[in-house]
Amino acid sequence: MFRRIKGQEQPVELLSKAIENDRIAQAYLFHGCDGIGKFMSALYFGMAVNCVAINQLKPCGICPSCHKFLNLEHPDFVYIFPTPNLELSLDGEIKKAEARKQYEEYLQNKIKSPWQEFFFKESTEIRKENISYLAKRLELSIHEAKYRIVIIENADLMNQATANAFLKTLEEPPPNTIIMLITERLQMILPTILSRTQPIFFRPLTRRVIEDILIDQFEIGETTAKTAAKISAGNLKTAIRIASESDSIIRNWAFDILDKADKQDDLGFGTLMDKYKEQQKKDQISDLLKYVRILAADITELVMNPESDITNVDRLEYLQNTANNSKLSEDKLYDFLLFLEDLNRKIQGNANLGLVMINLYIKLKNLLHGKA
Ligand SMILES: [Zn+2]
Which residues contact 170 (CB under 8 A, 6 or more apart)? Predict the structure, then answer.
């Protein structure tokens, strides 16, 4: 099953070798950006060391032990992640009904569609009570596993007091227990914690790997997969979201804006703002900017060389026409990309989104028609 983790050959090899040579560390720190397989690698590693299959590649994914891990309900598995205040009892029971409901929904989402973000209603962190509960669990003996497995996701979201409490656990880990910390922000992990773990770096996935996953596992068409992979910056979660959800709408929106800018149809742009009024939230506009960036890059490439291998191959003829009418150059494209980055920063910083859209339209119009 380890082979299911695509594009992370190095970490997978390292973990497999650790099992093979019986040199398993007590604590690991899996780091690298979001959406690249850190959690799955941690879970599969926990499964592999406990898998009871004979004569099979481990983890097998079907033996009783693997099965319990895949359902996140193995009695020797402790899974900790940032939550709102759950009002945990000392036995790890969630007292607040609403919090328990959300907690269970989180787990179900993690089991069924781990690529989908789950948002709690309240703000979340790794809480001291979770760490106290962990310490208590580790004092008890192991039920049935060979190794007890602890996964702490977003381990950077611990405040100082919680991190210090956790450090105590990490300093004297019980035998046959593997603790795996996961983080996107290595720099936020306390050096004292860092020094007691074996760090394993996960790289962003290559475009090719993301394209293949989208096509093979999610049955997404080649063009969409290609675009989504390009936009995702190596993050599979982003790629899946773009490819499956708002993809076609936001992509169409980008093409529509391009069209109005190309025709210098200001009134038409006004009607677009109305047509896409449901697609004007922060994240959507941020995605839109990414599409516009790729469209501008495609057009520039076609200006340079009509035989270019562009991203939006399905709209080649249209883009070629736009390219023929435009006065785009690489220099101008570069300025435009900087402008888009700046615009994106403004969006993240709560700029007026209506103004952002108008700026985008004007700049795009100038880009295609040769003004500064
Ligand atoms: Zn198994």
Answer: 27, 179, 193, 196, 197
Find the 67 Cα to ligand 1 centroid distance in Å: 7
- What separation in Å is there between the alpha carbon of 156 and the centre of ligand 1? 31
Q: Are 9 and 163 in contact (CB under 8 A)?
A: no
Backbone angles phi, psi at 352, to 5 degrees: -70, 115
pLDDT, tens only, 146-205: 999 999 999 999 999 999 999 999 998 899 999 999 999 999 999 999 999 999 999 999
Q: Give tens-digit pLDDT for 123-147.
A: 899 999 999 999 999 999 999 999 9
Ligand 1: centre distance to CA 69 (Å): 9
Neighbours of ion ligand 1 (CB under 5 A): 51, 53, 59-60, 63, 66
Please give the CATH topology (third level) of the domain spanning 246-369: Zinc Finger, Delta Prime; domain 3 (1.20.272)
Separation of 55 CA from ligand 1 center, angstroms? 11
The rounded Å distance from CA 70 to ligand 1 centre is: 10
- Each domain of the chain, given as residue ranges in start order, spans 2-82+125-203, 246-369
**What is the rounded CA–CA span in Å between residue 129 and residue 134?**
8
Residue 176 Cα to ligand 1 middle (Å): 18
- What angle separates helix 247-263 from helix 282-304, to the nearest 10 degrees? 60
CA 265 to centroid of chain Cα atoms: 38
Q: If you measure from the C-alpha of residue 56 to the centroid of ligand 1, how many angstroms do you get, rounded to a whole number?
A: 9
Q: Are 145 and 74 in contact (CB under 8 A)?
A: yes
pTM for the model? 0.76
First-to-last CA distance in the chain?
Answer: 54
CATH topology of domain 2-82+125-203: Rossmann fold (3.40.50)
What distance in angstroms lies between residue 162's CA and the mean position of ligand 1's atoms?
A: 34
Distance of CA 221 to the CA centre of its chain: 21
